[in-house]
């Protein structure tokens, strides 16, 4: 017997249907069904459309009923850039930053990513898992149904493998989907610094031991690098991503976050799934992205949290025809948030994206960057029933109300994973 659920009473269903990925003008085409209904069978969307049409199906008459009472139904957010597994906050650095220290200065003194590495290496797997579970619940409460998660706070063989194994365990043990990315090339760990050839030796460890082991054990789908003046150069990044690719790990790149390093052209050259951050893009980088299938993933939470004035050039990217996505970059150093709604608010207010563009960027285009757009990312017949229901009267109110969580219900594969009391 199949398990059927009829959702009705939505004042708007935001379907985001049509060709994926969405570029240019099509980013704003989100296909809003007013007063619609949706039939879900065994976790998959079986029908969607005007209420009269969906309700008259014989299966709808037998289905369990969920009346959302005038609320708005969206596909759950796909958060395509997070650093889920970390041991603790860096609230101490937050205060230093407020007092005027900048992110790179803190990192230079052994804080920043290395601070998180120190904390993670001494944490137990149980502690890390409990903290991650707590974050996953917060993601679900804010309407997120799939996240990408990066390693990168371990930076030695044992700790990196431990993080990636936790991604796998958590993916199996709780309802949100976790897509695993290996970020061994986050920064050079402390024990390799200040030694002659330290960076080279660490890179050898990555390409000769870690990447092959990660790939062989199916611990990640993607390989990422932090290509930045304080992390890895373009040449070093190329080495890591090329070896990753040879082992079946698709590239992603932390690109042009604090300076322009040529990471975007490298990413496109290597067929990266995504180049992320992009505050320091050059006009030619925008053209390169626009001609490619590499997604431009924008992370305005970082600029907000670090108090930086330079947001990524979203409008130029959209107008040039690049595939734009949005993500939280949830991490303890630059973007301590698991709220996609606040990211949408920042995208609209600071980068002048419209609410419709922000919704497509946070669902279908993010799903495309994870290679999952055929199964998730939009509300269409045959796709997985990953939903977020918001207690608002109009989809534009999702980014409009900032710092207020209007998510009322979240559903993964047709099962409720969060519901407000
Ligand atoms: O995406 N840029 C590199 N990685 C993270 C920050 C990590 C940290 O500061 O802990 C980012 O912003
Ligand atoms: Fe990041």
Distance between the termini: 30 Å
Strand order of the largest sheet: 8-9-10-11-12-13-14-15
What's the main sheet like?
Answer: 8 strands, parallel
Binned strand content? 15-25%
Secondary structure tally, helices: 17
Q: Work out the helicity level.
A: 25-40%
Structural class: alpha/beta
Shape: globular
Explain the layout of strands and helices.
Elements: E1 4-8, E2 12-14, E3 32-34, E4 36-41, E5 44-50, H1 51-55, H2 58-62, E6 64-67, E7 72-75, E8 77-79, H3 91-98, H4 103-108, H5 113-122, H6 125-141, E9 144-150, H7 157-173, E10 177-185, H8 198-216, E11 222-226, H9 234-246, E12 250-255, H10 263-269, E13 274-277, H11 283-290, E14 295-298, H12 300-306, H13 314-320, E15 323-326, H14 340-351, H15 355-361, H16 364-369, E16 387-390, H17 397-400, E17 407-412, E18 415-419
Parallel strand pairs: 1-6, 2-7, 8-9, 9-10, 10-11, 11-12, 12-13, 13-14, 14-15
Antiparallel strand pairs: 1-4, 2-3, 4-5, 7-16, 16-17, 17-18
N-(iminomethyl)-L-glutamic acid is lined by residues 112-113, 116, 226, 254, 257, 302, 329, 331-334.
Give short descriptive properties of this protein.
binds fe (iii) ion, 421 residues, globular, 17 helices, 38% helix
What does this structure look like?
With 421 residues, the chain is α/β, with parallel strands linked by helices. The chain has 17 helices and 18 strands. The strands form three sheets. An eight-stranded parallel sheet has the order 8-9-10-11-12-13-14-15. It has a six-stranded mixed sheet with strand order 3-2-7-16-17-18, covered by helices on one side. It has a four-stranded mixed sheet with strand order 5-4-1-6. The longest helix has 19 residues, at 198-216. It is globular, with a radius of gyration of 21 Å. It starts with a strand and ends with a strand. The mean pLDDT is 97. It binds N-(iminomethyl)-L-glutamic acid and fe (iii) ion. The site of N-(iminomethyl)-L-glutamic acid has 12 residues, from helix 5.
